């Protein structure tokens, strides 16, 4: 069975950034927390500064293309 994978980008308040390829946001969160168990995934700047992290799904992606995961 074919499973479509998605691309998720993360950034934590220490400056670590990267991507996670997973089938769902829940799976991406699980993968993220294996590497950063002390981090909380948040959606606002205040919590981000308090040892938080952003995790979001990228839009449609194609092969052989450069993407800016962090436009800020």
Short description:
With 72 residues, this protein is α+β, with helices and mostly antiparallel strands.
Largest pleated sheet:
4 strands, mixed
How far is the first residue's CA from the last residue's CA?
38 Å
Query: How many helix segments?
Result: 2
Note the beta-strand portion.
Answer: 25-35%
Question: Residue share in helices?
Answer: 10-25%
Secondary-structure-based class equals alpha+beta
Oligomeric state of the chains present here? single chain
Helix and strand element order: EEHEHE
- Low-pLDDT residue intervals, each spanning 5 or more residues: none
Mean pLDDT: 89
Question: Can you offer a commentary on this structure?
Answer:
- The model has no long low-confidence stretch (mean pLDDT 89).
- The chain has 2 helices and 4 strands, in the order ββαβαβ.
- By secondary structure, it is α+β, with helices and mostly antiparallel strands.
- The termini are far apart.
- The radius of gyration is 13 Å and the shape is globular.
């Amino acid at each position: 069975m074919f499973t479509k994978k998605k691309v998720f980008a993360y950034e934590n308040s220490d400056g670590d950034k990267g991507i996670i390829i997973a089938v769902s946001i829940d799976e991406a969160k699980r993968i993220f927390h294996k590497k950063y168990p002390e981090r909380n995934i948040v959606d606002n700047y205040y919590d981000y500064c308090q040892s938080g992290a952003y995790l979001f799904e990228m839009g449609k992606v194609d092969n052989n293309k450069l993407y800016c995961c962090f436009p800020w």
